[in-house]
């Protein structure tokens, strides 16, 4: 009963914290709410008229929704780059940022599930994903494994920070024997969620563009570049608008992780380009469409070359020690890298896999306003969830939120 009473007090204090703040905070929350309402309106149109209001067709059946889903799985997995140094290697410099990273993972995972719901057409078909009720097709379906992996990782990333914050809210230290086993599991689970997502594409033999042994490792490399890059940008915003102390050396250590992952990602990109274009076959047509266009169809050319240019520029900036240690330059490089990998793992991965079609015909894909509206709404929802989680966690960690007996 005492635990429930303390937990109720935590919820009450958290609600009090997230509903009060500066004018800037209220404008931010109001803006996110407005974008979410627009997204809900667009989704209501999709529910009423079906997926025909999107740019997807029977030829290109995955588009903006699955692109964002794939990218956000990587963002969620990137939390392990803070969890492992903090909980396993006991690096105190990462300790300041680990709860922020886990909160970002929770928001990203919820967004992932929201994009899956949007892509399935509506929540009425989700019962198929329930074991014993729907057509779960376990253990043969890779999608089934992905659902299990994502929900399991979501549970881990909610339970560990909740326990730590709950103890700190009471003015007590968290017990390592309670959270360390879960932290160790999350290290392997984070790798698993992105590998399983890669296997979803890699196992489709009829899509040679995805049927690539390097796809899984490249997923991880890009995730460990884009995810920590976003964490750095979030930490910069938190430093500027809250009392939460984050040292420069914490950001610089995370930047080193981003640098190594970005360099590995570039090496893997070069390897893929060599494989596709040095000795091309008819299986290289998807890559030709993506990078050079095919039969006069060039919708993705500006996207992919912009992404590669931004990716290379960001990696070069991060590679030089003096540039990386200049925080303003670092933030610019992180923005470039984040956007570049979003394009690469979105339009640069999903759409070309469907082009050309089975009979050699090219049906290009362009997202509609409805898709863009729903997508922005889900991103706004994720940002709002993260803001609420971060504001509560910062209040507890700075000592402003404490249980009053």
Automatic annotation (TrEMBL):
Cellular compartment(s): Cell membrane
Superkingdom, taxonomy of origin: Bacteria
TM segment ranges: 27-46, 66-85, 97-118, 147-166, 178-201, 221-242, 254-274, 300-320, 329-355, 375-396
Main location: membrane
Pfam families, sorted: NrfD
GO cellular component, as recorded: plasma membrane
Membrane topology, record value: Multi-pass membrane protein
Keywords: Cell membrane, Membrane, Transmembrane, Transmembrane helix
InterPro entries: DsrP-like, NrfD-like
Family in the record: Belongs to the NrfD family.
PANTHER family xref list: POLYSULPHIDE REDUCTASE NRFD (PTHR43044:SF2), PTHR43044
Protein name: Polysulfide reductase NrfD
Lineage: Bacteria, Pseudomonadati, Bacteroidota, Flavobacteriia, Flavobacteriales
Gene giving rise to this polypeptide: nrfD
